[in-house]
Amino acid sequence: MNFTLNLRFNNCARFFHSISVRNAGHSKWANIKHKKAANDAVKAAQSFRMSKQIQVFAKMGGSDLSQNIQLANAIEKAKSLSIPKKVIESAIKRGTGELKSTEKMESVIYEGLAPGGVAIVIEAITDNKNRTIGYIRPCFNKFNLNMTPTAYMFERKGVFLIDIKELKIDDVFEELIDIGCEDIREVELDEENDGNLIEIETDVKDFGKIAKDLKSNDKFEIKEMNIEFVPNKDTLVEINDEDTLASYEKFMDLLDEVEDIQHVYTNLK
Hints:
Blueprint (H helix, E strand, L loop, with lengths): L5 E3 L7 E3 L21 H22 L7 H12 L4 H12 L9 E9 L3 E9 L2 H14 L11 E10 L5 H10 L4 E4 L10 E6 L4 H9 L5 E11 L10 H15 L4 E6 L3
Parallel strand pairs: 1-6
Antiparallel strand pairs: 2-9, 3-4, 4-9, 5-7, 5-8, 6-7
Helix pairs in contact: 1-2, 1-3
Pfam family, one: TACO1_YebC_N
Family: Belongs to the TACO1 family.
Protein name: Transcriptional regulatory protein
């Protein structure tokens, strides 16, 4: 297997804006953090989004958690957000067809440019694509932005955030290489990050295998795992103007209000 290993200490530059889990997961170490109060409305939105995600994962891979790693991770994430067990179980049953539903959920991708020329890729789960685009397009129109192809600036990668507990990165470095990790980064701790965290990237085709290897090894605790759009390094952009940055934040907040959206990926440096 040929790959380029990139190890960067004390710097974990992420280009991932997590809408689905505002107070957990990748939003804890994203380059741009968007925070909201944990009120009832936000919790309801989280429950709705996680339910749709679980339904789609169950539809794609079945309900056997030992085989469907993404579903298992989504359920763990939902439990950490105190989403009721009944909501989780119903979502699984809708996905597998055990519980009949008129909803036909599907994953959709939207692309465009945010303020400052930032490329974004939006992942949504919806039962009505016309409704979803009807919510998303006005977010772009409000800032005179274009919905245009941008996914070519990104690569699909499996991304894991893992806690290596009392170990050091040197202690697990070779082992992570051996199981197929392509990119290893130490996460810089702050007031929102606890534990001894590192982030790894993998080829998408190795995602399930590596997830199983990590889960079966008591040296590691998986905090987050996703298949993401990771920006190509030569496409990264910066926003240095305060007014433009303010517009970018307002634009992202508008997207945050669209419940069908699961994740937004950007190439903001």
